[in-house]
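Protein modeling request. Please complete all fields; requests missing the sequence field cannot be processed.
Requester role: graduate student
Desired output: 3D structure, C-alpha cell encoding
Chains: 1
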Amino acid sequence: MAKSVYLKLASTILATVALPAFAQDGVPASSTGPTGEAVRADPEAPASTDSSGGEIIVTAQRREERVQDIPVAISAFGGAQVQRLGIVSLENVAPRVPSFYFGSFGASRPQLYIRGIGTRSFDPGSESSVGVFVDDVYLGRASGSFGSLRDIERIEVLRGPQGTLYGRNTIAGAINVITKGPTPNFTAEAEAGISNYDGYEVFGAVGGPVTSDGKVMFRVAGWRTYRDGYMKNETTGTKFQGLDNWGGRARLAFRPTDTTRIDLTAEVVQDDDEAAFSGFSRGSGPSITAGGAYVPANPSAAFLGRPGLAAVPYTGGNSYALSFDPYLDRRVEAYIGRIEQDTDFATITAISAYRKLKINDGRDLEGSSLDVVNQLSRERSKQFTQELRITSNPDGALSFGGALDWIIGGFYYRDRSNRSDAFELGVDSVTALLSGGPQTSVAASRYQIDSYAVFGQATAHFGEHFDLTLGGRYTRDEKRAIQTGTNTQPGVPLIAAPFAVDNEATYTSFDPRIVATVKLNRDVSVYASYSTGFKSGGFQYVPFSAAQANVLFEPEDIKTYEIGLKSEWLDRRLRFNVSAFKYSYKDLQVSQIVDLGGGAAASLINNAASSTIKGVDVEILARPSDNFDVSVAYGYLDANYDEYVFNAVQDFSGTQMVRAPKNSLNIGAEWRIPIGDESRLTLRADYALLDEFFHEPGEANPIFGGATSLTREPSYGLLDLRAAYEFGNFRVTGYATNVTKQRYRRTVLALGSTLSDFPGQPRIYGMKVAYKF
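Delivered output (773 residues):
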C-alpha cells in the first residue's frame, strides 16, 4: 500500500511540473504588522484568502510567511474563518484538519491524536504528544489546554513532529493559537446567543489606542458560555457534559520606539459543574454476537462490584442511573510578557510566561447504578516558561543579501505540580465485602520538572527555485516525583499497603530536521523532509503500590519522512496541497492493566510497542466564483503496531493503532449571496466523516478478552449547517451541529473486563446576534 501511495504522489508531482502555472508573477506585499490580524491583501488570490479579503499569514516557523510558502503540512484558520465556522474549541478544529482526531472525557481530559499519534494521559507525570501553544507559550498541562477559543486571530495546526522550533513533546504535531492583540484604531465587538439545552452565551471585546500618539494600545475581551449537559443522572436529575465557562483576557501593547515592542497579557478562564463528565457502564465481556455487533455478555456487571449484586443495565442513550453526581471546578490563570527588539541584522524576542492551574473534579468511576467506586481528583500546577530567540532580518548583513534565513534560541520550562486521586469504594464494592465496610484509597504525587533546550534553523536560498533547510534542537528534561499511597483499611485493594517513593530521572534528546524545497514557479512547490521527534519519559499515573510507582517509562522516539506538493492554479482560484509520510515510531508509551487481585486492577505505563505509520493528507480549496467556496480535507492512515506484546497470551502486534481511522474526510461548502450594497446572506454546510477505529488495542477482537470487543467505534458522519445575514455592522447567525442526530462515542473507559461509554454531543442548534465597529 505504501508503495502505491508514494507512486501516486510522484505521478501527481510530475503531472504538476508539466502543467503551466495559471497564476501571475509577483508576490503581493504584506499589509499587516504585529498588532492586527495577519492577512495579505491580494484580490487576485481568492482561493487563498479568508473571507475577510486577505490571505492568512502564519508564524508557524517563527516569522511571518504565507501558508503556501512553508514546506510543512499545516492547516490555518484566520479570525474570520474561526467566526464563520463557529470554532470555540479544539473539538471544532479537528474535523477540518486531515488525520486529526479529537476525543475527551471532559473539559480537563482531552485526547488529541494527529496522524495516529497521541495520548490519553493527562496527569502531571506524563506528557501530551501534541504540543498546544497560545501566543507562543507552551501549555505543559494537558488538563489546562482544552479551553474556550475566544477572541482569536488565527489557529495553526502543524502535522508531524515540530521539535526544532517548538517547545517540548511535539512528537505528533503542534497547535498554535494566536489571540487578537491591540490595534492602533478603536474597535469593539459584541455577540450574544441562545441555544437548545437552555444555552446562552455573551461575548464582548474592545480595543484601541490609550495615548494620542498610539504608542500605547489595549484590548480587553470577556465571555460567558452556558449550556445544560446533554447527559443526565436519572437518580438525581443532574445534567452534565455541557458548557459552564467564563473568562477574560486583557492585553497591553507599548511601542516606545519604532524598533521596540512590548506586549503584556493576562487571562483567566473558569469551568464549573455543568462541564463535568462521567461515563455509563456497559457491563463486561466477553461479548456475544447479536445482529453482527458485539454486545456485553453481562450488562449488569460493574467494575469492582460485589458478587451477587447486579447494576441496572445501561441500554444506550444519554441518561442513566448513577450513584454519584460528577462535579468540576477548573481555573486557569495566565500572564505573558513579550519584548521584541529590531536591530540591523535581526529581531530579538523574549517571551516570559507564568500559568496557574487548579482542578477539582469527581465522577462515578465505574459508571453504574451501584455504589462501587468514585474517583475524586485534585490537581494544582504552576508553570513558568522563558524563551529567547533571534530571528534574522532578510535585509540584514548576516542574511547575505537575502540568501539565508536563520533563527537561534533557547527555552526553559519549569513545572511544579501536585495531584491526588481519592478512590471511595462504597458498600456495593468487593473491597467493602472483604474489609467489612467502605474504604478510601488515596494516591498522591508531587512533581518537579525542569527542561532546557537550545535550537536553531537556517534556510539557504539557492537562486529562486531551490531552498535547503537545516535545523536541530537539543533538549534536557530533569524530573522528580514523590508519590505516596494510603488506605483507610489496609490489606485490601486498591492500595493494600501504604507506601512512599521518591524517583528522579533525566532525559535528553537531539532532534534534527532537513528539508529540501523546489519552487517550480510562484505558486507550485514540492518538498521532501526528514526529522526526528522526542516525547519525554515520566512517572506512573495513580500508582497503587511502591512497585508500580518505581516503574518509570522511557521517552518515545520517532523518525519521519515526508514529501509534499503545495500548489495554486487558475489564477489562485484552486489550491491543491498533498503530503505523503512514513513514520518509524519506537518505544511507545502504552498503558497496560495489572491484576491486583480481588477483582481490582491498575493501569501501568511502559514502553511496550513500536509501530510504522504511513499515510497521505490532501487539502483542496476551490473558489469557482467570488461568492462560492468548496473545501476538502482528507486523510488516509495505515497505522499498525509492529510489535506490542501485552502479556503472555495477548499479542497486539500487527493490529491497528488506537484512534487512527484509516480514512477521515471533511467537505465544506459556502455560498455568499449579496443583498443590496451593504448586506449579504452566507450559507454554509460542513460534513465530517470518520472511518471506523478502535478506542483500545486489539481491533475489537474478542479473542483478546476483557472489554476489548466493545471498543470498536463504527464509521460515522456529522453534518453542521450555518446561515448568517450581515447588514451594516450587524450579523445574525443561525446554526445546527450534528443535524442528523448521529450517535457516537467521544471516548470509552476500559476497566478490566468492564467498559464505560462516553456518548458524543447530540444535535445542538441556536442563534447569535453580533455587532462590530
